[in-house]
Amino acid sequence: MARFHPLQVTEVRRETRDAVVVTLQPREDDRSTFRFTQGQYLTFRRMFDGEELRRSYSICAGLDEGVLRVGIKRVDGGCFSTWANEALQPGDTLEAMPPTGAFFTPLEPAVAKHYLAFAGGSGITPVLSVIKTTLSREPRSQFTLVYGNRHVCSIMFREELDDLKNLYLGRLSVLHILESEAQDIDLFTGRIDVEKCEALFRGWIDVKSVDTAFICGPEPMMLAVAAALRKHGLRDEQIKFELFASSQPGRARRKVVSESADRHATCEAIVTLDGTARSFTFPKAGQSLLEAALENRMDAPFACKAGVCSTCRARVIEGEVEMETNHALEDYEVRQGYVLTCQSYPLSDRIVVSYDQ
Amino acid sequence: MPDETSDTPETMPIEDYLAQGGMLTSPDNVPPRYRGELLRLMASFVDSELAGSAGFADVINEAPGIKERIAAARIVLEKADHAGRVLEIMGSFGADTARYAVHHPWSARLPRDADIAAERRGGDMRLSVLHYPLEGWIDAVAMNALMGRAVVIQLGELARVSYQPLAEVFRAILPREAHHAGLGLEGLKRIAGTEEGRRAAREAIAYWRPRVASSFGLAGSARYEKLARLGLRHTPNEALLAEWQAAVDAELAALTLN
C-alpha cells in the first residue's frame, strides 16, 4: 500500500498571478521512492480544520533536471490550491505519496518520432515534463505543442517554453491559442475545439506524421481533440490522456442515520476473525464496519472496498447493518446474513459479526 | 493529474464526458459508481484468469508430449501473469493485491453436471464456464480452443474501456491470449487426426460450446446499457456472441469437427 512521506519545500516560485511552482526535496532515505517518470503526479495530504484533504498535482520537471517540482494553480474555492498559493513557504514540509500515473510513452533514444501535445491551462504541467524529457532523451524526436489559455498573462511556463524552443532549435514548436485576445492570425484566437483542430490540421500540423499525441485539459477539450485526432487516423493506442477533475470535491460525508433505527450514535461491535473475537465501539455514521475493524487493528480481509470483490464478506449474527451498495453478494447470501463489510453501516446499537463463517 | 484546472472554465459532468467517449486516467478522477463497475469488471477478469490458470495447471501432467506440455505450462504461466497485471490496477484503487491473489481457491470446481447457467458462484467473480472441471487432455484442449477464441473477442471489447491504464493492459495482453487460442486450435487439429480423436473432441465440444457461449452474458442485458454509458462496454453481448459463433463455426468446420 502506498504511504505518505515528508517532502521539504525548497522553493515557491510565482509563475502567474494564480499559479505557483513548488520545488520539493525528499529525505535522503526517500530519494529512490520519489524517482519519477515524466508526466507523473504526486498526491499530497494536509489537514484543514481537522479534516484530511488529498490533492494531486502533476510534476512539471523533466527527468534530467534533478529536481522534484510541481505546478499548483489556484482554483476558486479550492482549499489546498489556495493555501499553496498564499501561504506555502520554503522550509515547510508537505506529505506526499510516491509519484504515480501513466501519462508517458517509453523513451527510445534512437528513434525519430513526432509527438503532438494539446494542453489547456494548467494541463501544461505534465506535458511540460514530457516535452523536456523527450527532447533531452530522444535527440532525433520533435514535439509540437498546442497550448490554450485565456490571456497571455495566464500562460504558465511561457518563458520556459521559449527557452526550450531556443535550446532545441527546430525541434519544438509551440502554438498558443488565446481565448480572449486577438492575435495576428485569427486561427490562434478562440478555444481548442473540433473546428480549431480541423483548421490546425489543414495547414499547421501534419497529423499523418504524428506518432503519439498527448492531451491534458478540461473534459470538452479532451473530447474535441481526441475526436479530431481519431478522424485523422490516429488509433486509440497512439493517444495518451490525462484528465484533471474539474471540481474540487470535498470529503464525502455520510448522512446521519435516521433517528428511528437507533438510540445511540455509536455501535458496539463484536467481531470474530481467525477464531478471535474483539469488541470495539464505533460511530454509526461516517465509517464502515470494515474501516472500524481495520482501525481497531483487526487484520480484516478486503480488496476492492467498493462492494465489488466480496473479499470483505462477513456474516452478521446479531443486530442489523445497512449496506450502501452491493455488487457481489447474491440475494440468497444476503438472506443468510452475509454482508460486505466495506459497505456496511450499523443500524442497531450492538452487532455481532464473524469473518470466519 | 486530478486537481488542476484550466483557464477554460467550460467543463462538463463526468457522466456526459464518459457517454461521449471520454477517457479517465487515474483512481482520483473516477466517480464512485464508475469505480464500482470498473473494479467489478477487473475482479471478474482477474478471477477468471486465475481460475483458468489454476484449472489448466492439472492438465500439464495430462499432456501427451513435450510440445503439448510446454503449451499447457505457458497458458498456466501467462494467464496468471495477466491476472497480476490487472490486479495491479485494482491495487491502485486500494485493493490488497497480495491477499486478493490468494483469497479464493482458484482450482476449486463444481461437479461436471452442475447446472449454474451464467450465474456467479461463491466468493469470486470468475465467468461461470470456469466453474466446470476439465476431464483429461482432449477435454482441456477443446475447452481452451473454444474459450480462447471467446477471450480474444471479449478482450478486443475490453481493450476499448474508458479507463486508460486498464485499456493499455488489455491491449498488451491481447496478442498473448490470441496465442493461447492458437495453441488450442493447433492441439485440436492434432487430436482430429484420428477417428477416435475426432469422436472424443466432438463430445468435448458439445459439452463446452454452450457453456462458453453463456459466458458472453444475456442478450438485451440491462447491465450492458449501464456499462456502455460509462464507456466500459461498446458492443452488446449478443453481437460479441454472434462473432464468436461465426469464428468457431469456421474453425471447427476446417477441422471437420462441426
Automatic annotation (TrEMBL), chain A:
GO biological process: phenylacetate catabolic process
Listed InterPro entries: 2Fe-2S_ferredoxin-like_sf, 2Fe-2S_ferredoxin-type, 2Fe2S_fd_BS, Beta-grasp_dom_sf, Cbr1-like_FAD-bd_dom, FAD-bd_FR_type, Flavoprot_Pyr_Nucl_cyt_Rdtase, FNR_nucleotide-bd
GO molecular function: 2 iron, 2 sulfur cluster binding; flavin adenine dinucleotide binding; metal ion binding; oxidoreductase activity
Gene3D superfamilies reported in the protein's UniProt record: 3.10.20.30, Nucleotide-binding domain of ferredoxin-NADP reductase (FNR) module (3.40.50.80), Translation factors (2.40.30.10)
Cofactors, names only: FAD; [2Fe-2S] cluster
Entry-linked CDD domains: fer2 (cd00207), PA_degradation_oxidoreductase_like (cd06214)
Domain FAD-binding FR-type intervals: 2-106
Protein origin, superkingdom: Bacteria
Record domain 2Fe-2S ferredoxin-type: where: 267-357
Keywords: 2Fe-2S, FAD, Flavoprotein, Iron, Iron-sulfur, Metal-binding, Oxidoreductase
Family matches, as PANTHER family: 1,2-PHENYLACETYL-COA EPOXIDASE, SUBUNIT E (PTHR47354:SF8), NADH OXIDOREDUCTASE HCR (PTHR47354)
NCBIfam families: PA_CoA_Oxy5
Name of protein: Phenylacetic acid degradation protein
Organism per entry: Sinorhizobium saheli
From TrEMBL, chain B:
Pfam families per UniProt: PaaA_PaaC (PF05138)
UniProt record, GO biological process: phenylacetate catabolic process
Highest taxon, organism lineage: Bacteria
InterPro entries attached to this UniProt entry: Aromatic_CoA_ox/epox, Ferritin-like, Ferritin-like_SF, PaaA_PaaC
GO CC field: cytosol
Protein name per Swiss-Prot or TrEMBL: Phenylacetic acid catabolic
Origin species: Sinorhizobium saheli
